[in-house]
Amino acid sequence: MKKFLTALIILSLNAAQAADLEVVSLNLEESIDMALKNNPEIFQSMEDREAANWAFKRARRQSGLNFGYSFSGRRYGRSSNGNPMQTNNDFNNSFNVSVPIYHGGQLKNLRRQNKYALNAAELMFENTKQDIKLRTTTAYYEILRCRDIMHVREEEINNLQEYLNQSMIRYREGVVAKSDILATRVLLADSNQNYVTARGEYEKSMANLNTLIGLPTETPIILREEMNYVPHDADVENCMAYALENRPDYAAALFSVKQAESAIKVAAAEKKPFVDASASKSAEADRIFKSDTSRSWQVGLSVQWNIFDNGVTSASVNERRANLRKAQAVATQILDAVHLEVYSAYIDLKSAEENISSTKAAVGSAEEDYRLAKIRYVEGVGINLEVMDAQEKLTKARVNYYSALYEYNVAKALLDKAMGVPIDLIVPDYVDGERK
Q1: Coil, strand, or helix at residue 188?
Q2: Mind listing the domains of the chain with CATH numbers?
Q3: Which residues of 234-247 are buried (b: 16+ CB within 10 A; e: fewer)?
């Protein structure tokens, strides 16, 4: 293993020198942190949250004071009864203040509507971070899997080369048939081809992780961790209960339902009278800001009631009721997805857990079978085909073992995502706080 890792480091250093890129050493936690800081999807979700925040602030300010200023100025000429044309100036400065008194609950529900939209955006930001964490974790383990399979393929080549060297000596002594030498060379060529394929998969997996964490695609990475098995003892019922309380996308969907309910009330308010208070002051003169101006002021209330609008308001209400039904259907769909994702990830986790123990035992058996096949062949009681078959089974057993480790760790990450294991936002605390 040490020889293999040394070879990988040398390969990475050579690639870095060729591409003029610095080798990056990472563990899983560092990879996730980089992805959460650099991935473009994080910035997109962050801006969605920012836009929702400003929309809420705009809705909240619509119920406050409105202060306005207007200015008009003109120059005009007038003549009558044959008198010479007289030129005059007319300037007006006006200040006005207005405040809504009653809008049928429209402004209050508009604030609620935008507040629920902000809540949903906050939760979806958390959901995006959890999704990025899952994808980064999967990409990290994919590199480890490819690295381990490269090691298996490299060890297979070393075993076959050593076996071929021994066979060549015995062939010169007339003990081994030429067909055995040819068969070994064919298998060795296949092993080299498999190694090249594994190396290509390893390089592509590094490129995938680089893209997720914001590094140049060709950046060589050295991972400081090994795939291991850490038992997961939670049962599916507890996982499901946790998910229903902590999944941010489901909580966001419930806020979207509330947002649609408030939108109906906003539209329905158009049937009610709107009452506004206003005050204004104006000054007129024939010169701008002349001291002896004509002044006036007024205060009052205005009422606007749209008694008949030819069904426009009713159509708007019905449109938003349809949006509500859609939001409810989306929430139900997400709830079903939560159940399915948790259950599927849990089954995958347990299946991979069983495969780890069985494939680990198979590796031990395959190693012993390969050792005995070589001994029998050297002693003349076995044939070359048995050695080749034992080597292929040993390689397959080792690949299966590392694949089972990979599937277990990925299933564990999938289960964490399906349950809504938090990164920054504790969903139950957030939802309870918003309810207050």
Answers
A1: helix
A2: 27-65+105-272+319-435 (1.20.1600.10)
A3: eeeeebbebbeebb
CB 210 within 8 A of CB 216: yes
Calpha distance 207→196 (Å, rounded) = 17
Query: What pLDDT is stored for residue 9 in this prediction?
Result: 44
DSSP string, 61-125: HTTS-EEEEEEEEEEEEE--TTPPPEEEEEEEEEEEEEEEEE-TTHHHHHHHHHHHHHHHHHHHH
**Cα–Cα dist 123/25, whole Å:** 32
Distance set, CA 427 to CA 123, 331, 381, 420, 424 (Å)? 8, 16, 68, 9, 9
Amino acid at the residue 252: A
Burial 313-352 (b: 16+ CB within 10 A, else e): beebbeebeebbeebbebbeebbeebeebbbebbebbeeb
Block mean pLDDT (10 aa), the chain, length 436? 46 50 90 94 94 91 87 78 76 87 87 93 96 96 95 91 84 82 88 92 94 92 89 90 95 95 91 88 76 77 86 91 96 96 95 93 93 85 85 93 95 96 91 68
State the Cα torsion 169-172-174-179 to the nearest 10°. Answer: 80
The three-state DSSP-derived secondary structure of 250-263 is HHHHHHHHHHHHHH
Please identify which residue in the block is written with the tokens 């390689």.
395
- The pTM for the full model equals 0.84
The region, left, alpha or beta by phi > 0 then psi within -120 to 50, assigned to residue 414 is alpha
Q: What share of the chain is helix, strand, coil (3-state, %, to 5)?
A: 70, 15, 15
How confident is the model at residue 277, as a pLDDT? 87
d(CA 3, CA 297): 92
Dihedral angle of Cα 261, 267, 273, 275, to the nearest 10 degrees = 80
Nearest CA-CA partner of 284 in 17, 21, 93, 416:
93
Which residues does residue 77 pair with via DSSP β-bridges, in sequence order?
Answer: 87
pLDDT at 64: 85
Residue 201 tokens, joined: 């998969």
